[in-house]
Amino acid sequence: MAEMLKVNGLKAWYGESQALHGTSFEVNSGEVVTLLGRNGAGKSTTLRSIMGLVAKRAGSIRYDEKELVGAPSHRIARAGIALCPEERGIFSSLNVRENLLLPPAIRPGGMTVDQIFELFPNLKERLTSQGTKLSGGEQQMLAIGRILRTGARLLMLDEPTEGLAPVIIEQIAATVKTLKTLGFTILLVEQNVTFAAGLADRHYVMELGRVVDEIPGPAFADRIDSLKTYLGV
Ligand code: ATP
């Protein structure tokens, strides 16, 4: 499989405080890969660094042969990467349709609003509902729908299942599988080990700002119980 993203010795700082201490991992085209780890391990910072949202970075992030460390986030977006943040980033005063129309299609291949509704039929029923009136699951689907507008090929999802009911988590899992069959590459930050197990081709475990373990998908089942204990979930 072709390598799409190669993160090598990535360091990142918030002011004087160093959050990443040399993170290395890779994602191949078409894969679903998860980053697991305890709170504060540096998972969100890794996604934000790839997106160019952490000002001070060092090391290397290669995407499609381009170096992203040093590149501004708008150029990273144009290269084909999108981030769906943990807090979802929905505009609460706008309705579903307006929220979907706001992110511009910055690359060819960005989905139309109708294509996004095909993927999330229940969002279509909520077309004119304001962001604040949506359930947590609907908000998460809207947040994923918004990044599909942009035409990005590498989708980074930060804890998409957080705070959601099991039945909604199943819908999000089905969505991730559909996106994979549509050819998207997905980098997922998760605390929900069971959700990650059913989806990912590969898993990385982060600790103290570094990747400390790589677990291939088929070997993951044997590790679930110990990982749950380790992560405290
Ligand atoms: P969580 O699941 O709790 O978000 P995480 O693995 O995603 O955990 P990060 O949010 O990346 O971890 O945090 C990594 C480190 O960076 C932590 O020590 C955290 O306190 C610190 N950190 C995160 N965001 C900021 C910020 N905006 N300013 C300063 N320090 C931060």
From TrEMBL:
It comes from the Bacteria. Keywords: Amino-acid transport, ATP-binding, Nucleotide-binding, Transport. One of its GO terms (biological process) is L-amino acid transport. It comes from Azorhizobium oxalatiphilum. It holds the Pfam family ABC_tran. Residues 5-233 form the ABC transporter domain. GO terms for molecular function: ATP binding; ATP hydrolysis activity; branched-chain amino acid transmembrane transporter activity. Belongs to the ABC transporter superfamily. PROSITE patterns: ABC_TRANSPORTER_1, ABC_TRANSPORTER_2. This is ABC transporter ATP-binding protein.
